[in-house]
Design brief:
- This is Retrovirus-related Pol polyprotein from type-1 retrotransposable element R1.
- Pfam families: RVT_1 (PF00078).
- InterPro entries: DNA/RNA_pol_sf, RT_dom.
- It is globular, with a radius of gyration of 17 Å.
- It is built from three helices and seven strands, in the order αββαβββββα.
- It starts with 9 loop residues before the first helix and ends with a helix.
- With about 130 residues, the protein is of the alpha+beta class.
- β6 and β7 form a beta hairpin.
- The longest helix has 21 residues.
Length: about 130
């Protein structure tokens, strides 16, 4: 059972399937976006010491939805960045189902490298390296 991969109806069925997760109201500080089976959760917080506490609720809700729908999180592909122009002395540790989520300075989403400073530097270097290999 599940969504048939490679079928014409697959993407439409997946969109219907995941729609209720995307409709959950987490308030103004949390937003969820999805493309195919890639999910990104964006959270807004003033200080890193508040970030871990703020993230627990939304991560637990998303995790419960995933478990209720018999899906699995790929922990090897899961990571988070803290986007800010400031430097932080403390990076919070995030866990889902007792799995540590890796902190990274760059996040690749839909082929675009997003860096923690929200500049295009990491992505432009990535594209430049790919072009130089051709």
């Amino acid at each position: 059972m599940g969504i048939p991969q490679g079928s014409c109806l697959g993407p439409a069925l997946w969109n219907i399937f995941i729609n209720d997760l995307l409709q959950i109201d987490f308030g103004n500080s949390v937003s969820i976006q999805a493309f195919a089976d890639d999910l990104i959760i964006m959270m807004k917080e003033r200080a890193t010491y508040l970030f871990k506490e703020t993230s627990i609720g939304p991560l637990n809700i998303v995790n419960k939805w995933i478990q209720d729908h018999r899906l699995e999180i790929n922990y090897d592909k899961s990571c988070y960045i803290i986007a800010s122009s400031k430097k932080f002395s403390h990076i919070p540790s995030l866990r889902i189902n007792n799995h540590k989520i890796t902190h990274s300075v760059n996040l690749k989403y839909l082929g675009v490298l997003i860096d923690s400073k929200l500049t295009w530097n990491a992505h432009l270097n990535y594209v430049k390296d790919k072009i130089n290999k051709v």
